[in-house]
């Protein structure tokens, strides 16, 4: 039986997406993927409008922009991620991957109890790149390995 919280690793994408004329990602049900250029533009529009209404003093705002602009951007993304995860059954984390580890060393590094078979572990793929997306999803129930495979395919 598999646990209710499941992890799945996906390769990173380059983030480029092609939109056809008239596409509006905000109006469509989208499969789980990265934020679209249209969504990014909408967030920027909302922030521009809010900043124009804010009445913030220019000189101090410039100081904050220069010294803390990157931190503020990171905080906004973290806040958005928290809100997205609150309404989603998927949680995605970008992680650094140590590709020099053997499959068993990688499993050992998780610190979790292992229910593994040595032959299966030996066949684990190494993957490529220094980073990967790890996707967790909550099922809310225990399921068989066969049913878990079906859940992976749906995502």
Features:
45% helix, alpha+beta, disordered N terminus, 155 residues, three-stranded antiparallel beta sheet
Could you please describe the fold and organization of this structure?
With 155 residues, this protein is of the alpha+beta class. Helix content is 45%, strand content 14%. The chain has 5 helices and 3 strands. The chain has a 3-stranded antiparallel beta sheet, with no helix packed on it. The radius of gyration is 21 Å and the shape is elongated.
What is the secondary structure topology, with strand pairs?
Blueprint lengths: L4 E6 L26 H18 L3 H29 L3 E7 L6 H7 L8 H5 L8 E8 L6 H10 L1
Antiparallel strand pairs: 1-3, 2-3
Question: What does this entry show, briefly?
Answer:
Helices cover about 45% and strands about 15% of the residues.
β-sheet strand percentage: 5-15%
Provide the succession of SSEs: EHHEHHEH
Major β-sheet, in short? Answer: 3 strands, antiparallel
Distance between the amino and carboxyl termini: 19 Å
